[in-house]
């Protein structure tokens, strides 16, 4: 079973959503690789790609939060830092292929999916309310 971006994950109908779709697609490559072949190098490269894209994406989100003067930015940023730390730990310890495969789905669902549904959705509600208030003014 792979991951799927669904409408209830919608954040901005823009770059953030595009990033989330890309993260899910990289994660799915790892999961499909798991089913077909077990090539350690390719697997590690894909997980590294996911890690790099997560970092790049978090920076984009934080930049957006700053521009919007998002009141929960600090706590959201801390959650990003914790995910990066956990990913570092995972990568540093990712020696054993079977272990990686067992943990990967669980980790993606925690680091990507849960984060979107909890923290990023808070940002989405804040942005939508801001747009609504702005439209009301005119
Ligand atoms: Fe986030």
Q: What is the compact description of this entry?
A:
With 138 residues, the chain is mostly helical.
Which features characterize this protein?
single chain; 138 residues; mainly alpha; Four Helix Bundle (Hemerythrin (Met), subunit A); 4 helices; 82% helix; elongated; binds fe (ii) ion
What would you say this structure looks like, in words?
The chain is an all-alpha fold and 138 residues long. The protein has one domain (14-137): Four Helix Bundle (Hemerythrin (Met), subunit A) (Up-down Bundle), CATH 1.20.120. It is 82% helix and 0% strand. The chain is elongated and about 60 Å long. The mean pLDDT is 90. Fe (ii) ion (FE2) is lined by residues 61, 76, 80, 115, 119-120.
Can you tell me the CATH superfamily?
Hemerythrin-like
Average pLDDT works out at 90
| The CATH top-level class label | Mainly Alpha
Shape: elongated
Ligands, deduplicated: fe (ii) ion
- Show unreliable segments: none
CATH architecture title: Up-down Bundle
- Radius of gyration from the CA trace? 16 Å
Give the class from helix and strand content and strand pairing: mainly alpha
Largest β sheet strand count, sense and barrel closure: none
Encode the helix/strand succession as letters.
Answer: HHHH
Q: How would you classify the quaternary structure?
A: single chain
* Total separate domains: 1
What name is given to the CATH topology? Four Helix Bundle (Hemerythrin (Met), subunit A)
Distance between the termini: 47 Å
β-strand amount: under 5%
Tally of alpha and pi helices: 4
* Number of E strands: 0
- Percent range of helical residues: over 70%
